[in-house]
Each structure stands twice: as C-alpha cells, then as structure tokens.
Design brief:
Two copies of one chain form a homodimer. Chain A starts with a helix and ends with a helix. Chain A contains twelve helices and 14 strands. In chain A, the strands form two sheets. In chain A, strands 1, 2, 3, 4, 5, 6, 12, 13 and 14 form a nine-stranded mixed beta sheet that branches. In chain A, strands 7, 8, 9, 10 and 11 form a five-stranded antiparallel beta sheet that branches. The first copy, chain A, is of the alpha/beta class. The relative contact order of chain A is 0.18. The complex binds N-(aminocarbonyl)-beta-alanine (2 copies). One N-(aminocarbonyl)-beta-alanine sits at the interface of chains B and A. Chains A, B: GO terms for molecular function: hydrolase activity. Chains A, B: Keywords: Hydrolase.
C-alpha cells in the first residue's frame, strides 16, 4: 500500500502554495505561484531519485528508469498542478502526487518494472489563463503545435512562452519525446455521482465533448436616460439573451448537456451608459457528439437572429473543441478488478470534466480512476474528498500501475 | 451676441483634456484628469476677473460681483465638467463654458446687473465613479450632507474626500453658501427629439425620475463540466434573467420607461467555473413617478422569486433615487420667448437625463435650455452638436440671463 501520510501531507503542502491575501488558492498556469508549485514538485521528484525532464511547453516529467526497463515505452501516470481562480487543493494535484507516490512505493518495495514508470505534471490543464484547456497534454499528444501554443495570449494579455521562460519552465525537451505504453490518471470526480451512490471508486470509461467559445457583441454606447428602448444597440442586453437561451436549451436537452457562461466583461462598464460591447465565454458540453453539434448549430443560428433583432454585431471564436473520448476498455476492466480485489465498490462512469487523459488517449491506451467529491463540488474552495477515499484511490492506482509496469 | 469663436475654442480645448492612450476622453470626478480640467477652467475664471470660490465638495464658482449688485441673491448658471468613460466633449462642459461666456459677454457689453451673476461647475454630476449622480448640486441644495458624500466609495475603491484633497479641490466654502435667485442650465439634449423634429431649441419643463440600484447575487462556484443544470446556483445566469426581465418590462410599459444594466462583474470570472457572484447596476427611469414605483416594486418581487427559483441569494442597494422634477414655468416661458425673438424654433420637452438643474430646482426657480444631439447620441465619443446650434443655444442663455440679472 502507498504511504498515506506522505501523500496526504504533500497534497496539503502543495495546496498551501499560491494563496492570495484573502486566502484564495490561485495557481494559474505559468504564473509566479505556478512556479512555486512546480519548484516544490520538482524538489520531490529529485528527492525520489527520478530523472527530471521538462519540455518546451513546460510539461514536467519525473522518470524512473530501472536497469531492466531501459528501451521500453514507459507507463505514464499524470495530471496537472495548475489551478482555477479560488480553487480547491485536489483538482489535478491529487493525481500528480499519487503518481509520484506510486513510483516511490514501487521503488521502496523493490519492485522491478519491465518498463520505465513516469509521472507527469502537464502545463495549463485548466485553460483559465490560456486556452485551450489540457494544453500541455494536447501538445504532447501531437494535437497542437508547441510554437502555436507558446504564442497563446492570456486573459491578462501575457504570452505563455514568455511567462514559461520568466518562471524558468521553458524546458529543452521536444514535446512528445516520451511515447507512453499506457497512460493512467487518478482524479477527484468533481461531480455528484459517486457520493450520491455511495461508491468509492469510479472506472472512467468515457469523457464528454467540450466546446468553448468567446463571443464578442458590439453595440453602441448611448445615454441610459435619454435613449428610448426602441433605439438601443445594447450589447449587455444581447449578452443576457444568449445566457438565457443557452441555459434553457441545456435544461430542455434530451442528453445531459451543460452550458455555462463563466466570464463576462462590459464596455465601458458605467452605470448610465448603454454597454457598447460585451465579451463573454461559453462552455458547452455533451457526452453525445451529435447533440453537442446540434447545440452549437442552434447557438450560431440564434446569434445571427439576435444580431438583427438587437441591432448589434456578434462574432464567435472557438477557444477549444474536443469531441467525446472513449477510454481503453482493458484498463477500465483492470480498474474494476482492482477495486473488487480490495473490496471496494466501483462503477463505470463518464467524466464531466476535461482531463489530460483525454489527450493522451490519442497516443496510448488510457483510462482514469475517480474518487468521490463531497457535494459534487469542484472549482471552488469547498472542494473536498475524505482522506480515506483519497488513499483508497491511490492504492487502486498502485495496483493497476503495478500490473501495467510488470 | 456671445463670442462664438471663444466659446467653441474653449469647448475643444477642455475636450482635449483627459485623453487616454487610446484617445478616449475619461475625466471621472476627482481624478487626475478632472484636476487638469478644473485647473483649465479656474484659469479662465481668473482671466475673466471673476471671484473664484470652491466649496468642501469641490463645487467651483466664478462670481461676477459688480458694485451695484452686492447683497443681492445671484443668478447662477451651471453644469459640470466631469465626464463618463469614453465620453463626448459636450455633456456638461458646454453649459459651464457657455455660462462663463455669458458673463464675459455681459461684462464686455458694459451691462450693469442688479445682482451677481455666477457660473458653477458642480462635482460628480455623472455618478460614474461615485454615486449618487448630481452629487455636488445635491449637496449645494441641501439634499445630502457634505460629510456623508465625502465618504463615498468609488468604483475603484477610492474615497471622494481623499481624492478631492489629493487633487487640490477640497475647498473651504461651506456647500450651499451661495443662495441663487434663479438657476439656468444649458445642455445638449443627449436624446433624439430635437433633431428628429428639426427644432433647434428645447425649453425643458420637466425631468424624469431616476432610480439607481446595485444588485449583488450570491450563488456557488462549481465545475462547469460536471455540475448538472438542476444542481446549479449560477449567479451569472440569475443576473441575465434580471436584465431580460427589466428590458421586457420597460419595452412593454405604457410610459416611456427606460431600463439599463450598464455595469456587470462576475466572480471568479473563469471560463469553466459557474459564477459564484454577479454584481451589477440598474438604471431605471420614468417621467411618471407612479409608474417608476410600480417598476421598482415589480423588480423587488421578481428578485425574491428569482432567488428561490435559481437557488441564489440576492441583495439590492439603492445608489440614487430622484423623483421627477417640474421646472419653473416663468423661466420656461422666457426661454420660449427668447427663441422666438431670435427666430428660432422651440419646443417644450422633458429631460431624459439627470441634471444639476434638477437639484437646484429645490432651492430656486430653475429651468434648462437644450440644443440638438446628432443621432440622439450621448455618453459616447460619437456625441455631436453642430457649432451653429451650440452658438444659438448660448445666445438664448445670454438673453434669458440678461433678463434675470437685470
Ligand atoms: N479537471 C478539470 O477541472 N479540468 C479543467 C478543464 C475543464 O474545464 O474540464
Ligand atoms: N446629463 C447627464 O448625462 N447626467 C448624468 C446623470 C445621468 O445619468 O442622467
């Protein structure tokens, strides 16, 4: 079994890195606080005697090369340590630190793997500062060019490549240098299913599709008191119509569609000025690709109609678009078997969140293990999973990793 | 007649003060750019040989005391020189500079008034940085205490009193020290009526009621991908419902109600996080007080209902509340007569915007003169009035002021 105290201690230690004055955890990709988190993690990799490699998009790898395992494709265990704004401490970090824990446990047990075992912390999984999300693993899997991603402009106007260089994590390895034999990721569910059903382990068999867009509505600034309702080009009101349209459509969908407008910006943002411009993001997800496409098409048609009715101009930019992904059934079955073997309840499930595993599934057999999230809450400081559940998940990861590395 | 070249030159000179790097005019109350505008104006007051007085809330007065006029209540002509964000050059400045122009013209003509004639630039008429709007004239008229207003917190977290002291405009006169015999204000219409009807002069007989509120909606942050639509407390979605509710209600109103949500802020404002909080302002206006009250009551009821349906908590704070105002019919008739006398078309009208005259009407007979706004546009860099129309309005101000000061 893994060293529960070490794992839980590290999760808390990393979770303390990147607190603002209000105590909020904010470790956005390639920021100063991300650097602090990376430094802590790399220190642990070195302590564990792993070979540390960093690629050009800042993905960090800790590689356990045993004499017997040379020249074999490695087993890779990964996730991310960047966070959203005002985050919980488990999203991402749990999987990365459990990966390291598994390697240290196997080493301590004198286990002799037939292939290298590596742990990865991928850059910018959250997609909050730079889009798309899962950026580091996407590049690793060849789904986007490193140079294009390094040119990404952040919500704060920063350039990812410059920020990585500034924080000392623009590495020298070419992304994708490590071709995994298989990929495993352990993560908190971030949703309500496991808790509601009282099941401690999720064997994630698929992941829903994700469509992210940035919408810009241009209207005309005018006086809030003198401009009749019929003469307005109110970009803010048009934005509100888009939010309610998407919400109502997602609620009425036959599939479990979710739609979120998480960011909103008005120009000039003054109390007595009709907004001349509204910029906002749309996060639209569906486990069914047909249904996701139908929502996207309906949204596009609605925006065209709305532009005419509201006398505004509307443009949409795709920030991320990933179809649903099926994980490797062989690994899913191993997860189920490992849980049963330890006397733990397990169910197959869909992931509502995006994950690095989704990208790695393009180049290797991949699957994920979920543990429950209290109240289904994530992307919030109220994110919580019980220690015993975290430890149980890490032991399932250990069992499956042991089989895949044998 | 007034000196058209001098007036138009000053409007342009003041309009060049407070440009940001993008060329946008931003002279928010008590800011550094407001100081530059005030310094320019005070320089012109000194050049004109007027007594300059500044009160504790930063209202600036230029007073023409002739030997004959001592001890009489003055005729006051005023408006403001603060602006909104990305403003036009006419809103407020036109009336202040025309007031100065009238005094200089009367002096040059050797006119001997029976009472002092003064021009005022009131602090924070726009209400964009600090609320309520028309703050300086409200205090002058005794409608709010100076100390309470000096404690106002701005959208940028600043304190008005500290900012006035910093820019050197926390004066020593007690607000209200100058009790006017009558009050005149010349302003661009900021709405579409005069242009549409081809009438160059508006004799403003009343002003609609204004209700400003700040709404705070607290929901719960959660993951955009994993949280089913039915389990959300989405503060952003609830905010959008308020916008569409108000818009539809204003459109359906029997009175010419206008409703605007000009500012919006989401927390944590991240693409894949359900907004935990939305803060926004409501600007609701109606010429009919009964109707305005009905809208306010309907809004309050809607917010209560919405909080339950959307599983959020909602609080509302009144930022400004002014009932409709009737101007002095005697002065309105003088404006009409002066226009006819110069062969100019004139119509009585309602002001859609709030104005300092609205406050001064509490303590003196007051009325306003409007000139056309091209396309009805204001609170926008596209705000425009033809030079000839500006000059015509200033000459009507001259005529009415001459009568009232005689
Ligand atoms: N797991 C996770 O929260 N990933 C961030 C990308 C997403 O929004 O799904
Ligand atoms: N005249 C003018 O724009 N005043 C600002 C206050 C308001 O919003 O009406």
């Amino acid at each position: 079994a893994i060293d529960a105290k070490r794992l839980l201690g590290r999760i808390r230690e990393l979770g303390a890195v990147g607190r603002d004055n209000d105590g909020r955890l904010i470790r956005l990709a390639a920021s100063d606080t991300d650097r602090q988190g990376r430094d802590l993690f790399v220190g642990w990799l070195n302590q564990a005697g792993l070979d540390v490699a960093i690629d050009r998009v800042g993905n960090i790898f800790g590689i356990w090369q045993s004499p017997d395992s040379a020249r074999q494709a490695p087993l890779l265990i990964g996730s991310h340590i960047d966070t959203v704004i005002d985050a919980g401490i488990y999203d991402g970090c749990y999987g990365v630190l459990a990966g390291l824990e598994v390697i240290e446990t196997l080493k301590a047990l004198g286990f002799s793997p037939s292939r290298p075992v590596a742990v990865a912390a991928f850059t910018n999984e959250e997609g909050v500062r730079y889009t798309p999300d899962m950026m580091g693993s996407l590049v690793h899997a060849g789904g986007a060019g490193a140079d294009a991603m390094l040119a990404a402009i952040g919500t704060d106007g920063s350039v990812l490549g410059q920020e990585l260089a500034r924080i000392g994590y623009a590495g020298d390895r070419e992304p994708g240098f490590l071709k995994p034999h298989a990929y495993l990721e352990l993560h908190i569910e971030q949703g309500p299913v496991l808790e509601r059903e009282g099941v401690p382990i999720g064997a994630v068999e698929n992941l829903q599709g994700i469509s992210w867009q940035r919408i810009t509505i241009d209207g005309a600034a005018n006086h809030a008191g003198t401009t009749p309702m019929s003469m307005r080009s109110d970009a803010g009101h048009a934005a509100a119509r888009v939010i309610t349209f998407l919400h109502d459509r997602a609620e009425a969908s036959n599939t479990p569609t979710v739609a979120t407008v998480g960011t909103m910006h008005f120009e000039p943002n003054a109390i007595n000025v009709i907004p001349s411009c509204a910029v906002f993001t749309i996060d639209l997800r569906d486990p069914d690709e047909q249904s996701l496409q139908a929502h996207e098409a309906a949204l596009a048609a609605y925006l065209e109609e709305l532009a005419v009715v509201e006398n505004v101009s509307i443009s949409a930019e795709q920030l991320a678009r990933f179809g649903p992904v099926l994980f490797d059934i062989g690994i899913v079955e191993r997860i189920e078997a490992a849980a049963k073997n330890r006397g733990l309840g397990v169910r197959r499930m869909t992931s509502g969140a995006g994950h690095d595993a989704q990208m790695m599934a393009r180049i290797a057999p991949a699957a994920m293990i979920f543990v429950p999230s209290a109240g289904g809450i994530s992307h919030s400081p109220r994110e919580h999973t019980e220690d015993a559940e975290l430890v149980a998940g890490a032991n399932i990861l250990l069992d499956v990793a042991t089989q895949l590395a044998k």
